[in-house]
C-alpha cells in the first residue's frame, strides 16, 4: 500500500511515517514547503499514484485560533476539503485526523462517534469544518479519526512539560477538573493502519486510549515515570488557569464503531503510558 502523509514532521506524522514503513508500506511524507496543500492541482498530482493519504496537517495552537480563526480555518477546514476533492478525483482513500474539541465537553459518558458536535472554541469550529468538508467531497471513501490528549517522542507535549517543570520547581499544580484519555501518537498511527488494512467503511472512528483520568492524574504518572515523587503534583481547578480558548471538561471518546470491524481499541491509558514513557521522556 502506498501512503502520503501530510504534516509528516509533526508528532503524529513522524510516528505514522516510521510505523507504516516498518510494516512494509511505501510511504511519502510531506510537510511545510514540500507541497502546497491549498493548490488543488498540485495535490491531485501528488495523489496520482497514492492508495491512502493520511492528513496530519493541522493548526493546533488552540489559544491562538481564538484571535486568528481565519488562518486556523484555512489549515483545519479548507485544506481537508482540498485533499478530499483531490482524493475523489484520483480514487485515493483519505484518512483525516480530527479532535475531541468538536464536542462541547459537557458530557458525563463517553462521546459516541455519531454524537452531535457542538464546539465551544475557534479551534473546535475549524476542526468541525474540516470534518464537514471531508464528508461532503469524499462521502464514500473517507475515514475521520478523532483523537485527543496526544503525547509522543517527536514534539512538545504535556508529559515533557510536566516532567521538566516538576523537576525544576520541585512541585507543580495541575487541573483535576478536566477528564480525558492520554493517548500515544504511535498507538494512533497503529489504529489508522489497522483501519486501512481492514478496509473499514467510510465513517468516523475514535483513536484514544481506553479508560480515563484527569490532567492531574496523568501528571502524577508522568512525574513517577521521571523518577520523582507523585506527591509533588498538587490538584487545582480550571479557574486557576484562565486561557483564551475554553478547554473541554470531559473529553472521553467511545470506541463502539471499531467493534463491528473486529478491531480492538487502543489499550488502557496507564498501560500504554507505561510502555511509552521511557521513549517520550527520553529515558530509554
TrEMBL record:
GO terms for biological process: dTDP-rhamnose biosynthetic process. It comes from Nocardioides pocheonensis. Residues 1-275 form the RmlD-like substrate binding domain. NCBIfam families: rmlD. Pathway: Carbohydrate biosynthesis; dTDP-L-rhamnose biosynthesis. This is dTDP-4-dehydrorhamnose reductase. GO terms for cellular component: cytosol. Pfam families: RmlD_sub_bind. The gene is rfbD. Belongs to the dTDP-4-dehydrorhamnose reductase family. Catalyzes the reduction of dTDP-6-deoxy-L-lyxo-4-hexulose to yield dTDP-L-rhamnose. Its EC number is 1.1.1.133. The keyword Cell inner membrane does not apply. One of its GO terms (molecular function) is dTDP-4-dehydrorhamnose reductase activity. Keywords: NADP, Oxidoreductase.
Amino acid at each position: 500500500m502506498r501512503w502520503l502523509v501530510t504534516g509528516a514532521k509533526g508528532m503524529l506524522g513522524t510516528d505514522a511515517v516510521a510505523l507504516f514503513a516498518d510494516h512494509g508500506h511505501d510511504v511519502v511524507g510531506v510537510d511545510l514547503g514540500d507541497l502546497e496543500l491549498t493548490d488543488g492541482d498540485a495535490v491531485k498530482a501528488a495523489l496520482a499514484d497514492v492508495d491512502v493519504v493520511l492528513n496530519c496537517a493541522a493548526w493546533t495552537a488552540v489559544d491562538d485560533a481564538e484571535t486568528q480563526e481565519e488562518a486556523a480555518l484555512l489549515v483545519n477546514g479548507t485544506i481537508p476539503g482540498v485533499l478530499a476533492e483531490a482524493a475523489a478525483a484520483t480514487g485515493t482513500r483519505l484518512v483525516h485526523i480530527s479532535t475531541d474539541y468538536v464536542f462541547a465537553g459537557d458530557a458525563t459518558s463517553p462521546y459516541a462517534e455519531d454524537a452531535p458536535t457542538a464546539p465551544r472554541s475557534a479551534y473546535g469550529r475549524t476542526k468541525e469544518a474540516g470534518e464537514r468538508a471531508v464528508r461532503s467531497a469524499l462521502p464514500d471513501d473517507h475515514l475521520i479519526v478523532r483523537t485527543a490528549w496526544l503525547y509522543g517522542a517527536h514534539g512538545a507535549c504535556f508529559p515533557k512539560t510536566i516532567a521538566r517543570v516538576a523537576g525544576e520547581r520541585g512541585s507543580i499544580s495541575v487541573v483535576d477538573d478536566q477528564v480525558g484519555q492520554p493517548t500515544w501518537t504511535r498507538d494512533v498511527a497503529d489504529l489508522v493502519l489497522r483501519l486501512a488494512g481492514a478496509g473499514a467503511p467510510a465513517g468516523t472512528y475514535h483513536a484514544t486510549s481506553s479508560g480515563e483520568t484527569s490532567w492531574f492524574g496523568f501528571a502524577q504518572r508522568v512525574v513517577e515515570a521521571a523518577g520523582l515523587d507523585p506527591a509533588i503534583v498538587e490538584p487545582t481547578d480550571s479557574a486557576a488557569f484562565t486561557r483564551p480558548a475554553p478547554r473541554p471538561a470531559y473529553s472521553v471518546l467511545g470506541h463502539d464503531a471499531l467493534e463491528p470491524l473486529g478491531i480492538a481499541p487502543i489499550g488502557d491509558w496507564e498501560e500504554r503510558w507505561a510502555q511509552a514513557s521511557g521513549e517520550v521522556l527520553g529515558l530509554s
